[in-house]
Amino acid sequence: MRRLHLKEAAAREVLLVRAIESEDPQGAILTQEDRRYASATALLDHPVGENPNQSQTGAFLHRRASLAMTRLLARYPALRRVCSVSRWPKWLSWLVPLAALALGSATNVLDGPRLNILAFPLLGMLAWNVAVYLWLFLTALTPRRESRPVLHTVERWLQPVAARLAAQPTLERGVSRFAGDWAKAAGPVTRLRISRTLHLAAALFAVGLLAGMLARARYAASYSAGWAGTWAGAEQEIEWLLGVILGPASWLTGIALPTAERLRDLREGSENAGNWLILWAVTTVLVVIVPRLVLAALCALRGGILARRLPVPGTEDFYVRRLIRDALGRPGTARIILYGLRLSEQDKEKLERLARQALGDKTRICIEPAVDYGAEDAWLAEQGASLGEADQLLLLFSLGSTPEAENHGAFALGVRQSLAGGGTGLTLLLDEGGFRGRFGDRRADERLRAWQQVLATTGLEPVLVAIGSTEEEVGVRTLERALQRAPNTA
Residue 426: pLDDT above 90? Predict the structure, then answer.
């Protein structure tokens, strides 16, 4: 599905208004008058045609969402908290690096009164950073996947705010839905901001560590270097290790590294720490500070670009298409196609009422004659070319029927393939009828799993409805939620 890309603030408003409207079909939170006003004013400011381009659609949606948010915020000030919490906390961008700088400076105290050339703060810092670079390299070779911890973090920021709206259940549901939508939209840019902050913190930790060492050398009466520990007799190995770690710095500065004999003298002994400070400072700059600052800058650049292009549903989304259609005053069309089942006139009238309430009063609803079992190929050959003319297509099957891939699955797949490349929304419904009441929940759930297995190859997820027994309000909400999902167009 083609998506629009908006600036972060615009995407936030569009997704929040979309979530609230989707959970408020009756207009209890954002009234129908508010919606008509927002659409009409946005259409005047940013006209759209029958087939608007991405820029026109994005400008219309942003303007409409801004107008709707103005009225929502006036009535529900708690939504300001939702908008605030959904933003990246800028204070983290400087607090974490500054804390790392302070920690790096304090860590130098652990090294004692002299510079231990094999101390953990120095070797540990280098080892950790090399491990991070290796992990980044390996992850760059694997396909990019959604970062679930980041998505969950973004959602957790918003869920407590949603819980505070318990007095307004519809608004609470809207905010909860927005939390999930916003986590998916803002997850990549949030991940980059977290990475930028951590890279900068790592660089400043190293700066703090070096600053502590240099400050001690500057203000201490004498600052010596040596080593101690359980490495006695391993001077050859230490010589090799220091060559690997400090070799580039030695080559750049011209400062010679110690031989095994000199290292043997330095054990439990000491010498002036000046050259060692230079070697470790240059190594830290080369291995930690410069690479981390470069990575932080890259993450900041990529995050800045993504923040200007956050994805939101585009013109193939049911919600967006309905907004544009209603704004233009064009009635929508919906075709309901029954396969292998018969509905009474009373049930047909109820189904039509449910669809009209879910899709809008102006929508033209057409419940077509049922397609007979086994006649799907002939029906598709005759009707397939015209399926894309409707705004919405609803396929209705019976849960009581035993699903068969060569019939039910082939019919659903054929309908979807007929819609390939178009903007028609496709929803597959399973009418429970009296099946659950007659056979119980266990049998009904088993049958549903059988349907899901048959339909797995089609990419369609069935939605359960109970046309004859469900209260209309519940039926409308079920149908709306099915329609508000991303359209199942190819």
Answer: no
Position 139 scores a pLDDT of 85
Average pLDDT over every residue of 344-372: 81
Average of per-residue pLDDT across 18-35: 87
Residue with tokens 């409308």: 476
160: Cβ contacts below 8 Å, ≥ 6 apart: none
Residue 40 burial (CB < 10 Å; 0-12/13-18/19+)? middle
β-pairing, 224-226 vs 271-272, is: antiparallel
Q: Supply φ then ψ for residue 231, to 5 degrees.
A: -90, 15
Tokens of 186: 């803002």
| Domains assigned to the chain | 1-228+268-325 (no CATH), 331-484 (3.40.50.300)
CA–CA dist 42, 35 (Å, integer):
11
For residue 396, which of 455, 470, 339, 477 has the smallest C-alpha distance?
A: 339
Tokens encoding 364: 């033209």
Mind listing the pLDDT tens digit for each residue in 397-406? 888 888 898 9
pLDDT band at residue 294, thresholds of 50, 70 and 90?
very high
What is the C-alpha to C-alpha distance for residues 258 and 161, in angstroms, rounded to an integer? 61
d(CA 484, CA 463): 12
Check residue 273 and give its pLDDT: 67
Give the rounded distance of the alpha carbon of 16 from its chain centre. Answer: 15
The reported pLDDT for the residue numbered 438 is: 84
Confidence band for 61, pLDDT divided at 50, 70 and 90: very high
Q: Tell me which of 21 and 213 has the higher pLDDT.
A: 21
322 vs 126 pLDDT, higher one: 126
Residue type for position 9:
A
Length of the chain: 490
Answer yes or no: are the C-beta atoms of 439 and 433 closer than 8 Å.
no
Cβ-based burial of 361 (10 A; exposed 0-12, middle 13-18, buried ≥19): exposed
Range picked from 218-227, 262-271, 274-283, 293-302 for highest mean pLDDT? 293-302
Q: Compute the distance between CA of residue 245 and CA of residue 258 in angstroms, rounded to an integer.
A: 13
The β-bridge partners of 272 are 224
